């Protein structure tokens, strides 16, 4: 009886030592089906198929085509993600060179500093008479206006020196520039663009690269820039 007990104890100890010496691999396994795994499964399918109901060639080709297409789409997505990262980096590099420069953007909302006025462009689709540029404050009050007369079609430049109708220098801040022309018996508002200084560049995943302009809230896309000039 004691021999049996001793043998059992020795056997259990041996099993315990084996368990303690065995390392359990807890690393997560890759569950992605590779091309090699797919062809291995396809080979098994062919080996164990019913000889009286073999897999049709068309079905086999369809399975292989579906897997190849899915794998190709996955690779294409990876390549497009890499290309998008490269393009974003390139745009950021281009935009950073604009910091401190003046850019022409399609907006009449502008900023006047202590020493500068506002420059811009009025866009005319046809020859127009009686072109007038009007400067308003953010409350819509007219601070200054000047006539540009008759103009041909194209981009007509203007330069406001920052003064009011009496020649007094207006305080720095935001102003709205509007342009009008006489079309028949009515006055029509014209498209306008203004120059602004680039203060900084913002980079975000959703919106890409944005230019932050002096005194103007909200960024402009690099593609919105119509012209670049010295600051």
From TrEMBL:
All residue ranges annotated as the FlgD Tudor-like domain in the record: 90-225
Alphabetized Gene3D superfamilies for the sequence: 2.30.30.910, 2.60.40.4070
Domain of life: Bacteria
Domain FlgD/Vpr Ig-like: 118-184
The keyword Ubl conjugation belongs to this UniProt entry's keyword annotation: no
Keywords assigned: Bacterial flagellum biogenesis, Cell projection, Cilium, Flagellum
InterPro entries xref list: FlgD (IPR005648), FlgD/Vpr_Ig-like (IPR025965), FLgD_Tudor (IPR025963)
Pfam families membership: FlgD, FlgD_ig, FLgD_tudor
Family statement drawn from the similarity comment of this UniProt entry: Belongs to the FlgD family.
Described function: Required for flagellar hook formation. May act as a scaffolding protein.
Record's protein name: Basal-body rod modification protein FlgD
Organism of derivation: Corallincola platygyrae
């Amino acid at each position: 009886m004691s021999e049996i007990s001793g043998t059992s104890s020795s056997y259990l100890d041996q099993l315990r030592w084996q368990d303690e010496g065995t390392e359990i691999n807890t690393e997560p396994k890759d569950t992605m089906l590779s091309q090699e795994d797919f062809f291995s499964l396809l080979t098994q399918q062919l080996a164990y198929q019913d000889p009286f109901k073999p897999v049709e060639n068309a079905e086999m080709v369809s399975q292989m085509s579906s897997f190849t297409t899915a794998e190709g789409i996955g690779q294409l997505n990876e390549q497009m993600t890499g290309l998008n990262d490269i393009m974003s980096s390139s745009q950021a590099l281009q935009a950073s060179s604009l910091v401190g420069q003046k850019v022409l953007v399609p907006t009449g909302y502008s900023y006047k500093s202590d020493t500068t006025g506002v420059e811009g462009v009025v866009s005319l689709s046809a020859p127009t008479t009686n072109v007038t540029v009007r400067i308003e404050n953010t409350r819509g009050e007219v601070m200054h206006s000047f006539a540009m007369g008759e103009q041909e079609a194209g981009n007509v430049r203007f330069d406001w020196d920052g003064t009011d109708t009496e020649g007094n220098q207006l305080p720095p801040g935001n102003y709205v520039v509007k342009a009008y022309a006489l079309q028949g018996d009515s006055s029509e508002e014209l498209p306008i663009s203004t120059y602004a200084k680039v203060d900084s560049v913002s980079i975000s995943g959703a919106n890409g690269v944005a230019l932050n302009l002096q005194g103007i809230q909200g960024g402009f896309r690099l593609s919105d820039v119509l012209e670049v000039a010295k600051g």
